[in-house]
Automatic annotation (TrEMBL):
<dbReference type="InterPro" id="IPR004364">
    <property type="entry name" value="Aa-tRNA-synt_II"/>
</dbReference>
<keyword id="KW-0030">Aminoacyl-tRNA synthetase</keyword>
<dbReference type="GO" id="GO:0006430">
    <property type="term" value="P:lysyl-tRNA aminoacylation"/>
</dbReference>
<keyword id="KW-0547">Nucleotide-binding</keyword>
<protein>
    <submittedName>
        <fullName>Lysine--tRNA ligase</fullName>
    </submittedName>
</protein>
<dbReference type="InterPro" id="IPR018149">
    <property type="entry name" value="Lys-tRNA-synth_II_C"/>
</dbReference>
<dbReference type="InterPro" id="IPR006195">
    <property type="entry name" value="aa-tRNA-synth_II"/>
</dbReference>
<dbReference type="GO" id="GO:0000049">
    <property type="term" value="F:tRNA binding"/>
</dbReference>
<dbReference type="InterPro" id="IPR012340">
    <property type="entry name" value="NA-bd_OB-fold"/>
</dbReference>
<dbReference type="Pfam" id="PF00152">
    <property type="entry name" value="tRNA-synt_2"/>
</dbReference>
<dbReference type="GO" id="GO:0005524">
    <property type="term" value="F:ATP binding"/>
</dbReference>
<keyword id="KW-0067">ATP-binding</keyword>
<keyword id="KW-0436">Ligase</keyword>
<dbReference type="Pfam" id="PF01336">
    <property type="entry name" value="tRNA_anti-codon"/>
</dbReference>
<dbReference type="InterPro" id="IPR004365">
    <property type="entry name" value="NA-bd_OB_tRNA"/>
</dbReference>
<dbReference type="GO" id="GO:0004824">
    <property type="term" value="F:lysine-tRNA ligase activity"/>
</dbReference>
<dbReference type="GO" id="GO:0005829">
    <property type="term" value="C:cytosol"/>
</dbReference>
């Protein structure tokens, strides 16, 4: 029998003691008048023994000393101390507490409030009740969970034991709340679009495939937040829409990439990329100030201040400066040779992949904040061409900490050009490019009916991970882990 099994068996014996005494170890409700945060605010009103209150939470420390026991418990809103004292509660209840309560149990304590000689706000129990008996111990408080995979597998314990981690997830919730409020205050309508699609539009990524039993057809989990659907809403007469939701990409894992994550996309009729850049710059600054109370950050070895002037970085010029390759004129052979010389690992032997990989090498050297502009047509099949620059599109990407932190376009609304570009993507698919965009011919049909000039933009939760200076996996509540054994 393992040590953990022995601990579990000892707790099972305590469970049976409770049951033998007619105590339900898992009642549906226990006395609880206030959260710990609320009672801390109201402490003076209830202290001094005049009024009894009931509090509940998980026991995090337990210090029995003869006829008394001090314990700290938490309900997620705060931590409070309780005193269980022989003679102050019925003898049977005191004995049962000593015999059956462990660290990790959920209990309810009823009693009066006072301040100890050490200045600790405390509830002195006149009664207690088991709320949920734990059968396995919590991690050792000082060291916690040390194995990375176990931390993610037992994430509920990881979060319980780490206050900083809990606070990070509160910030993450606020990150999306600020984003939502920012857009709503500017007249954007929140919408919902399909997560199951016949074709995966709006991004270049390998999708997850599933099967629809009723229709007997294969479908894909979406790889964007309804880009082609939200554009249909522009054609339907809406002028400002956005959606925040989950996307799925069946690709590799890295500090910046996961297979399932949250993104936001907005679409704005009668606006172009330049309008979008102004709005996005304001959005990022608002998030920084309202979530963090600052605009200066350190991430991945970079320092950046979102309050600085955002510079425009030209895709073609910067790539040529740092690699010597003009991606508009160089041949595939020249680009492939240069990638080899730079010892850059890449997947897919197409011109689009070569161009994109050369840029990804360059972006790591830019701290930002900046906007990447002047993208080649070949890597942006949904973006409007730039009439002032041959072979370029009206696209923009925020750059912070050496990475792209979003993507926006003056959306392509020319159905003839869109059809040609989809045909080009189809050829890439046939050549084996698993990240090429699937053509959506019904989307082209929509464009033939007409869509107004539109700016679209999207960013994901990795922006939050940059601001936290953590790998994106660390900033998810429950990242995917391999099953045991």
């Amino acid at each position: 029998m393992s040590h953990l099994d022995e601990l579990k068996e000892a707790r099972l014996k305590k469970l049976r003691i409770l049951q033998k005494e007619g105590v339900d170890p898992y009642p549906s409700r226990v006395p609880r008048d206030f959260s710990i945060a609320e009672i801390l605010d109201k402490f003076d009103e209830f202290s001094g023994g005049a009024k009894k209150v009931s509090l509940a939470g998980r026991v995090m420390s337990l210090r029995p000393q003869g006829g008394i026991a001090f314990l700290n418990f938490t309900d997620g809103t705060g931590v409070f101390q309780a005193l269980i004292k022989e003679g102050e509660i019925p003898d049977k209840e005191f004995d049962l507490f000593i015999k059956t309560v462990d660290i990790g149990d959920f209990i309810s304590v009823t009693g009066t409030l006072f301040v100890t000689k050490r200045g600790e706000k405390t509830i002195q129990a006149s009664g207690w009740m088991m709320a949920a008996k734990s059968l396995l111990p919590l991690p050792e408080k000082r060291h916690g969970l040390t194995d990375p995979e176990e931390r993610y597998r037992l994430r509920y314990l990881d979060i319980l034991m780490q206050k900083d981690l809990r606070e990070m997830f509160v910030r993450k919730s606020k990150f999306w709340e600020v984003t939502r409020n920012f857009l709503k205050e500017r007249g954007f309508l929140e919408v919902e679009t399909p997560t199951l699609e016949i074709t995966t539009g709006g991004a270049e990524a390998r999708p997850f495939i599933t099967h629809h039993n009723d229709f007997d057809i294969d479908l894909y989990l979406r790889i964007s937040i309804g880009e082609l659907w939200q554009k249909r809403l522009m054609a339907a007469g809406f002028t400002k829409t956005f959606e925040i939701g989950r996307v799925y990409r069946n690709e590799g894992t890295s500090p910046e990439h996961l297979q399932e994550f949250t993104n936001m996309e907005f679409y704005w009729a009668y606006a172009n990329a330049r309008d979008g850049m102004k709005l996005v710059e304001e959005l990022y600054r608002t998030i920084a100030k309202e979530v963090y109370g600052k605009t200066k950050f350190s991430a991945k070895g970079h320092e950046f201040d979102l309050d600085d002037e955002w510079q425009n970085v030209d895709y073609v010029s910067k790539t040529k400066e740092l690699t010597g390759i003009d991606v508009l004129t160089a041949s595939e052979e020249e680009m492939e040779k240069r990638l080899s010389e730079l010892k850059i690992v890449y997947t897919g032997a197409t011109k689009e992949r070569f161009v994109d990989t050369l840029w990804k090498y360059c972006r790591k050297q830019i701290s930002g904040p900046a906007f990447l502009v002047g993208h080649p047509v070949i890597i942006a099949p949904l973006s409007k061409r730039d009439p002032q620059a041959e072979g370029r599109v009206e696209m923009f990407q925020p750059i912070i900490a050496g990475s792209e932190a979003g993507r926006g376009y003056s959306e392509l609304n020319d159905p003839i050009d869109q059809r040609r570009r989809f045909e080009g993507q189809q050829k890439l698919i046939e050549a084996g490019d698993e990240e090429a965009m699937m053509p959506d011919w019904e989307f082209v049909e929509m464009l033939e009916h007409g869509m107004p000039p539109t700016c679209g933009f999207g960013f994901g939760e990795r922006v939050f991970s940059f601001l936290e200076n953590k790998p994106v996996r660390e900033t998810q509540f429950f990242p995917l882990v391999r099953p045991r054994g």
